[in-house]
Amino acid sequence: MQSNVGVRLRLRYSKRGKVRFVSHRDGARLWERALRRAGLPVASTEGFTPRPKLGFGLALPTGAESVAEYLDIDLHRDAGLDPADPSWSSYTAETAVALTAAMPPGYDVDVVVARDPASGSLQEQVNSTTWELSGWESTGPGVEPELLESATQRLLAADELFVERERKGRRRVDDVRPLIRDLRPDPTGRILVADLVTTGRALRPSELAELAVPGVDALAIRVLRTAQWVDDPSGERVEVIEATALSAPSSPAASDVLVTSGPASTHGARS
Amino acid sequence: MSSIWADLEGLLPRVSKPARYIGLEDGMQIPEHEPHRVAWLLAYPDTYEIGLPNQGLQILYEILNERDDAVAERTYAPWVDLDAELRRHGLPLFSVDTHRPASDFDVLAFNLSAELVYTNVLNMIDLAGAPIRQVERRDSDPFVIVGGHAAFNPEPLADFIDVAVLGEGEEVVGEISAVLHGWKAHRAASADSDGDGAPTRADALAALATIDGVYVPSRYEVTYADPADGESTGRIASVEPIAATPERVEKRTVADLADWPYPKSPLAPLTEVVHDRLSVEVFRGCTRGCRFCQAGMITRPVRERPAEQVRTMVAEGLQRTGYDEVSLTSLSTADFSDVEPVVQGILADREAEAPVAGCSTTINLPSLRVDAFTVGLAGQVNSGRRSGLTFAPEAGTWRLRQVINKLIVEEDLYGAVESAFAQGWTRMKLYFLIGLPTETDDDVLGIARLADRCVELGKRHTHRASVTVSVGGFVPKAHTPFQWFGQNTREELHRKVDLLRQATRRMGGVNLKWHDPDASTAEGIASRGDRRVGAVIERVWRDGGVFQEWGEHFDLERWRAAFDAEGLDLDWYVFRHRAADEVMPWAHLSAGLHPDFLWDDWQDALAESGVEDCRWTPCYDCGVCTGYGIEHVVASPVAPAGGSQGTGQDLDRGHEVPVQLVGVGR
Question: In Å, how far from its chain's centre is CA A150?
């Protein structure tokens, strides 16, 4: 199946600002178009309707932002690209710039690295993710930052936490306590930081918000994914790719700016 | 500088498909608004998914933004969930480009591609914060302009719009901008002095009414006669212009498409839309002369884009957008003189550009002619999976096809189908109209017979052969030879659908689909309606009847109730045959066609007599070229080879079935 695949690119990118309303599925289509615009020699599947060989990570809920999204791109063997080549690092740096330019404003490619195509997919490898839930004070009167401290203690102390869900028209109740790896307010006390396990039926950030503050207007909570974690060969928990300085979380509004300066100025081509 | 984004952002998590409200498309523009510039808000009165691909809107968006005296942004009808949220929070209609409120714009310009969107037009004017009735608008309110095919009978919207533009917009939007620019400058200068003598809204409308192609309904007075014997409603007695206004408004036509290579920066959306691919218009206008087809009547003459320009626009558009699929659009793309070399050229360009082998580009040829040449062409552009191919014979018998002037001979039809199945296609989709003039039950059943034969042909090549028959109820349109014809009632259309259901029930491989006859009825209300119908449209809108093109929101009963409440008669408007001497609601508006030509063509239809395509045969003077001093721009002097729908064929033998079919399965 992987006969025409040479090297796999794994890229880390952020999705901030207005584009947080782009769904995972629409995002996939945007990447396909961006790869063609950037002229990347992407390998294709066989068959009547060849598709580019891309591996998308865990879906980000529509409306959530992230500074730690990942995408695997299998390049065609015939392109002759080799990570051992001295020009490789400049190739990946140029690719990051080109893809940022080809994607809509708000998608910023942070770093591109090579991976062995035989290594697992993002969906197989990632076992937990870190989230920041903010904007509690905007959800209505009575939601004070101190609530987050007590909610954290209450949820972590619980043996079982039941969430009612609907799937394919059927109601079911799941115990989601095992999916909460860690929970803490950030130093300001205004942001809830959550480490959630991604194996099985994951706990959605909106569900967590409702558990933390029952009755909260979960749609008013801002959600930011800050990390995705894998186990390295020694069993240690590490980020899929370490963030570079460029992708450090900044103020949420930063990427709403349409005519940007600095790292994202590649979008200045828009008139 | 204003934007409602900060308020809108909190609402978007609460609505379906929020990405359709964020803008940021590739090709989006962020124009600089200035007090002296005329700000256009180009509106599509249906969802973003339907409206974004609209080429007319994209073309005008670019042309206006290239001007010094204008800027343009876009808006689409917010879906009902966001509409409710906006109203609950006191927020207005906004542009998707910079999220400016509609009140920041001087012009609210709607593209009308169909009649059922009219209640959305009212809703969007209201959401924009302007009075829906034009007579109540103040100097500070936007000018409401409509254009597009349905604007050729804008009378049902006459009370709600300031201006209707007839025909192609490329040139006239500039002329409108110039007039409004001058009007704004004059008003600003008056305000700087003592405010006296500032030009009013009425002054602007009077000036606009002098532009060719611009119709200002409020400057025309319509009077009605008493009802004729046996009729419920009085016909139009007269339409008179007020003061210095032209008696007749003529449509605008661009002489040479080569001068307008737009859109140059096609919009590539962030969310999936209905035509999710690049579109390049290869020609405009069609003179096949199908008598039911409003588009073919109002867009004459034929103007082809130079083949080289098509190839360049495709190459640049694909590179710019990243699409791997392009549609070569027109009313009948196989009629484009250079269609074969252009297709070959596009494929060669893409092969040369591809970073690695195997990157395929799909070329889409919509509105295909029915013949073997066309199937061969479809085979060239579609080397991958061959699943479905669509043809539109429109009528089930040769007799009726002569009435409607869709002169596809049986031989060509079966030749096309046979050739398609032979080349690997397994599913055929055939479009038909029911409720056509002179139609008998035998004509209707002819649809089933024809589909059955197509399946038989297919079974010789593949056991999976299937034919989907799609039937829609015919709605007579303004400026066509069928404008006098009384539309079939919904009961009659239902009866004909039932005939077909019975007939196809036991035909293996034939699937029948039909358009809701209730929707055809509602479409007929505005398609030939007059100004009095406006009250019905307003009532349906006030009753919550928006998104009438969407089955889940449409209910004919709401329209019937609105007619009753207004004391009007739906049957009189929709199902009544018009008299020869009747003043049509659009009689003072012209698509360039001689009224005599339309009447004679109607008589020819009743006599089952066809006319040939005038781009390759001598002119029969429909009035357009001679009246406007323009002509066809067509590279090929002869009709395409291999079947040409009635041009240069022996029409006496049109009903004859190819010999090899005789006796098959019968």
Answer: 28
Enumerate the residues of chain A whose CB falls inside 8 A of the CB of residue B22: 18-19, 21-22
User: CB-based contact (8 Å) between A3 and chain B?
Assistant: no
Check CB contact under 8 Å for A270 and B29: yes
Does this model's pTM top 0.90? My answer is: yes
ipTM, 2 dp: 0.93
Contact criterion met (CB < 8 Å) for B21 and A21? yes
Which residue has tokens 């309110």?
Answer: B141
- Which positions 214-273 of B are in contact with A (Cβ < 8 Å)? 268, 270-272
Do β-strands B143-147 and B589-590 pair in parallel, antiparallel, or remain unpaired? unpaired
Confirm if B218 and B205 have CB atoms less than 8 A apart.
yes
From B400, B456, B313, B379, select the one nearest B606 (Cα to Cα).
Answer: B400
Cβ contact A29–B272 (<8 Å): yes
- Amino acid (1-letter code) at residue B378: A
Query: Could you list the pLDDT tens digit for every one of the 271 residues in chain A?
Result: 446 889 999 999 999 999 999 999 999 999 999 999 999 999 988 877 788 999 999 999 999 999 999 999 999 998 888 999 999 999 999 999 999 999 999 999 999 999 988 888 999 999 999 999 999 988 877 677 778 999 999 999 999 999 998 878 889 999 999 999 999 999 988 999 999 999 888 899 999 999 999 999 999 999 999 999 999 889 899 999 987 755 444 444 434 433 333 333 333 333 3
Q: How far is CA B563 from CA A137, B122, B435, B535, B574, in A?
A: 51, 17, 23, 9, 12
User: Is the CB of residue A78 less than 8 Å away from at least one CB of chain B?
Assistant: yes
**In this predicted model, what pLDDT tens digit does every residue of B86-103 receive, in sequence order?**
999 999 999 999 999 999
Task: Write down the pLDDT at residue B642.
Answer: 62
Indicate the pLDDT class of residue B384, thresholds 50, 70 and 90: low
pLDDT value, residue B648: 76
Instruction: Provide the token pair at A122.
Output: 């993002």
Report CA-CA distances (Å) from B454 to A149, B11, B386, B401: 72, 52, 17, 18
**Helix (H) or strand (E) run with residue B20 in it:** none
Distance of CA B368 to the CA centre of its chain: 17
Q: What distance in Å separates the CA atoms of residue A198 and residue A59, rounded to the nearest whole number?
A: 11
B6 vs A: CB within 8 A: no
Distance CA B109, CA B161 (A): 10
Backbone angles phi, psi at B164, to 5 degrees: -120, 140
Tell me, yes or no, if A76 comes closer than 8 A to chain B by beta carbon: yes
pLDDT tens for B323-373 read 999 999 999 998 999 999 999 999 899 888 877 765 678 898 887 888 878
Do the chains contact at A63 and B13, CB–CB below 8 Å? yes
Residue A204 forms contact with B (CB below 8 Å): no
Question: Chain B residue with minimal CA distance to A270?
Answer: B29
What are the tokens at A22? 């782009």
**Model confidence at B192, in pLDDT bands (50, 70, 90)?**
confident
Judge contact between B548 and B117, C-beta under 8 A.
yes
Burial zone of B459 (CB within 10 Å; 0-12 exposed, 13-18 middle, 19+ buried): middle
Phi, psi of A182 (to 5 degrees): -160, 160
Residue A252 pLDDT: 41
Nearest residue of chain B to residue A37 (CA atoms) = B322
DSSP string across B240-271: EE-SS--SSEEPB--S-GGG----SS--B-SS
* Measured distance between the N- and C-terminal CA atoms of chain B, rounded to whole angstroms: 74
How far is residue B447 from each of residues A35, B281, B395, B419, B435, measured CA to CA in Å? 46, 32, 7, 20, 13
Helix (H) or strand (E) holding B437: none
Question: Contact, B584 vs B483, CB < 8 A?
Answer: yes
